[in-house]
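Dear Dr. K.,

Following up on our conversation at the group meeting, I've run the structure prediction for GNAT family N-acetyltransferase from Rhodanobacter sp. FW102-FHT14D07. I'm pasting the input sequence below exactly as I used it, so you can double-check it against your construct before we proceed with anything downstream. Let me know if the numbering doesn't match what you have in your notebook.
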Amino acid sequence: MKSFSREARSVRLRPMTQGDEALFHALYTDPETMRFVGAAWTPAEAAKRFQRILQRGQGSPPADRYLVIVGEVTPDPLGICGSSHYDPNAMRLELGMMLLPQGRRLGVGRAALGTLVDYMFRESPAVEVYARFAAVNRAAGNLMARAGFHPSPVTGKERHESATCEWSIFRSEWRMEKSINSWG
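The predicted C-alpha cells came back this morning:
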C-alpha cells in the first residue's frame, strides 16, 4: 500500500503499523467497543489477528487495508478504519470503523468516514462502498445517513427480521472531499 496520510478537517488517516498493536488490542478486547460487533477477543486472539494482518501486509488492494485514525490536535490514535472485503464481480468494497471512547461523539466518525470513502474511491476500482452494522446501532445508522449512504436491499430476509443493516453509496453519488468533514 502506498503511504497514505490525507488530512481532513479534524482527522488524519495513516497505515496501521507494528506500533499500533496496543490500539488494536484496546479496541478488539473491550466489551463496550465490541458490543455491536461480537464477543470481545481475548488478548491472545487480538495478538494473533494483529500479527496476521501485518504479515499479510496491506498491499492486497483494495481489501484488507487498515488505517489508524489520528486527531488533528493530538497525535494520539482515536480508532481504526479500513476495508475488510472486496467483491470483484460486483465491484463492492466493505468499510468499517471502530473508535476508542475518546473519539466518540466528537465528529471523529464523520470526518474519518468521509476521508476513508474518498480514499477508497480514489485507490480502488470499486463502484460501491458499503458498511454492515448491527440494526440496534443507531449511531452507525445516523452516521451513514448523514454521509449520504442509503439502506441496501436485504437479501433472503425481511428488513425487520434482520439483526444487521447494510448501507451503501455508489461512486456516482459520492463527491470527493465531501462536506461531511465539516462540523455541524
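Two things stood out to me. The chain is about 30% helix and 25% strand. The longest strand covers residues 77-87.

Best regards,
J.T.
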